[in-house]
Amino acid sequence: MSLQLRDITLTYPDGDSRLTAVDHADLDVPAGSVTAVIGPSGSGKSSLLAVAAALVTPDSGRVVVDGTTVTGMNQAQMTAVRREKIGIIFQQPNLIASLTAAEQLQVMAHLDGRSARDARDRAVELLDAVGLSDKKDRRPHQLSGGQRQRINIARALMNDPAVLLVDEPTSALDHERGAAVIDLITTLTHRRATATVLVTHDTTHLSGVDQVAEVLDGRVRVPAAN
Ligand SMILES: Nc1ncnc2c1ncn2[C@@H]1O[C@H](COP(=O)(O)OP(=O)(O)OP(=O)(O)O)[C@@H](O)[C@H]1O
């Protein structure tokens, strides 16, 4: 279980020319470790994450998710890899207002074709893992921002992903809750052996992560010290 990005270049149309968002980037994320991806706004962090998530196909380079080469696949194959191997946590939890915490998780398992009983058991286990067992019957408006983000994390783990991709998980949280969310992601990564990429603006919570990659103008640099 690991993630490898090899010599990735991604461009977008920009008038008559192309804008290079990711420029010959390499990144290795071993199983059971968190790589924080930091860099200024517009440097290419989200673009890199979208490539790793098999949401966009790069112009060139190779993406390997848990031993499977994703580049060269068609959309249906990429979707299958996302379902089986990748968990994604976006900035905003995007929970469904009418569902309880447990149901938010169960609905994911339902989409993946698991039995109702299996889905319930897994939801209970993951709500426990994120410290929300006692909130399983609450709906989003009855939860705090930090609790909603925890549900979001638990939901992304329902398919037991090899790779966990997290985009700015603390942006809607205060400092203390943000630190707790990063700690939780790190703990779950180590415990469940996911290869985790954590895109963040916020460099104040990074003492517990395993590697920091700096992105500047689409180029990725992993300082030798970490
Ligand atoms: N869909 C798109 N079409 C055209 N250009 C895009 C698109 N998405 C991003 N870009 C451009 O690509 C570059 C990298 O953007 P990206 O969103 O990856 O950076 P980022 O580091 O994640 O920024 P932020 O921290 O502000 O989210 C920027 O110049 C951006 O304007």
From TrEMBL:
<dbReference type="GO" id="GO:0005524">
    <property type="term" value="F:ATP binding"/>
</dbReference>
<dbReference type="GO" id="GO:0022857">
    <property type="term" value="F:transmembrane transporter activity"/>
</dbReference>
<dbReference type="InterPro" id="IPR027417">
    <property type="entry name" value="P-loop_NTPase"/>
</dbReference>
<keyword id="KW-0067">ATP-binding</keyword>
<dbReference type="InterPro" id="IPR003593">
    <property type="entry name" value="AAA+_ATPase"/>
</dbReference>
<dbReference type="Pfam" id="PF00005">
    <property type="entry name" value="ABC_tran"/>
</dbReference>
<protein>
    <submittedName>
        <fullName>Putative ABC transport system ATP-binding protein</fullName>
    </submittedName>
</protein>
<keyword id="KW-0813">Transport</keyword>
<dbReference type="GO" id="GO:0005886">
    <property type="term" value="C:plasma membrane"/>
</dbReference>
<dbReference type="InterPro" id="IPR015854">
    <property type="entry name" value="ABC_transpr_LolD-like"/>
</dbReference>
<keyword id="KW-0547">Nucleotide-binding</keyword>
<dbReference type="InterPro" id="IPR017871">
    <property type="entry name" value="ABC_transporter-like_CS"/>
</dbReference>
<dbReference type="InterPro" id="IPR017911">
    <property type="entry name" value="MacB-like_ATP-bd"/>
</dbReference>
<dbReference type="GO" id="GO:0016887">
    <property type="term" value="F:ATP hydrolysis activity"/>
</dbReference>
<dbReference type="InterPro" id="IPR003439">
    <property type="entry name" value="ABC_transporter-like_ATP-bd"/>
</dbReference>
<feature type="domain" description="ABC transporter">
    <location>
        <begin position="3"/>
        <end position="224"/>
    </location>
</feature>
